[in-house]
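Supplementary Note 3. Input sequence used for the single-chain structure prediction.
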Amino acid sequence: MDLGFVDIAFFLLFFVIVVGISMWKSRARKSGEDFFLAGRSLMWPMIGLSLIAANISTEQIVGQAGQGASNVGLAVASYEWMAAITLVIVAFLFLPRFLRIGIYTMPEYLEHRYNSTSRALMAIYTMIIYVGVTISSVIYSGALTINTIFDINLVTATWVIGGIAALYTIWGGLKAVAWADLFLGGALILGGIVVLIIGLNEVGGLGSFLAANEDRMHMILPADHPVLPWTALVVGLWIPNFYYWGMNQYITQRTLAAQSLRQGQLGILFAAGLKLVIPFIVIFPGIIAYQLYSSELAGTPDAAYPLLIRNLIPAGVRGFIFAAIAGAVISSLASMLNSASTIFTMDLYQRHMKKDASSTQLVGMGRIMTLILVVIGCFIAPQLNNPAFKGIYNYIQEFQGFVSPGILAAFVFGVASKKSPPAAGVVALVAGPVIYGILYFAAGDIAFLNRMAITFGIILVLMTLVTIIKPLPEPKKMPEREGFTDIKLRKDILIGGLTVIALTLVLYVIFW
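The predicted structure, written as discrete structure tokens, is reproduced below.
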């Protein structure tokens, strides 16, 4: 797709405004709490949109649209709609505990609940995943999508994406990231709506679309389905969902920066409501692409979204769509960079390298690590084109499976069992990669979601045995942040959460 002068001008103007405002709003952020947690000042609209902007990138847009164009169809929406329920549970069950303690990072929570070894293990795992998997894969998938749709050189797109994200993240930390996400998240949703409307118009409207694609509009697939059997929805899919939305630093960091528990919970519920909309602006276009271009998508369903944009988006609108797609990548990348630098600085540098580091030194280290991480990611990203990785979506899910069951087990068991000893947390974090690795190499034909479920179950058994053998003499008492008293579950929050769950169930019934 060729970009005209107007399209390029719109793209440049959009990002000049976004970067300029985010840097201006985050000026004079000097303390560690300012840089890493936006001074704990975020309000619910910013939290909600930032969660979505951090979450949705091209690996979701291209991957889920591609699944929609394949034999999975709308069933892949379970990743979004089950996430809505997960977010409600996180808002009710986990967020009050995190805010009461006043943690900077998720590994820090494990030190309070178990010991410093657990914190160090999770910090190391997280850094490995960020550097080797998520940062590089987001850069690669974004650059590849931009290259496919707009015919921009892959390496050039890689460094443009990395450079823009690094610029405002290094300058202003989480505050800059959150302000940029207001624009980037809004552009992503609006751009998706534009693509959906144009696509539906091309196939004769919503009624014609639903009638022509009835076989792809089912949420529940047979138990023997090779990609997403209904059995995976019962247990397996909940594990990456809870890990991602409840324990993943680059997602939870903006909730840890909430001005209050109420603002944090409202922001999470806002994001949960938006998750119900995402399948309509991502997966529906993938199904539309299959309806229009099935012969061109044979064997390459991931080309569905790029193909739809290339063929249908008119001149003059391309610059906006280009900005929305690039923004989706840049917002996710900026969140990852900020969170990875936070974990390195707070959990590794301050704890093990320079315990007496001043606030200025912490912020400086955070900025240095952001730059280092983006450079590493930009060098690794082009290498992910190797067929050995079996596709970017598979690469992300498989490698995160090595750590997510153990981390989730440590958090969940620690909340459920007040007398679980420090050894139980260490066992969970050490055993997770070992068990999943054995299953990965010895039972690779088992779907990765089922391997996660098996790993998670074995770890819970091990933690139970450790707790039975050597329980804590007294229930673990967690510290409390000075002045934090906002711990009540308000009626409007409860009603909002139940409404999201009810709407999710209604959608499952409609598209059963």
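The mean pLDDT is 84. The first helix runs from residue 5 to 25.
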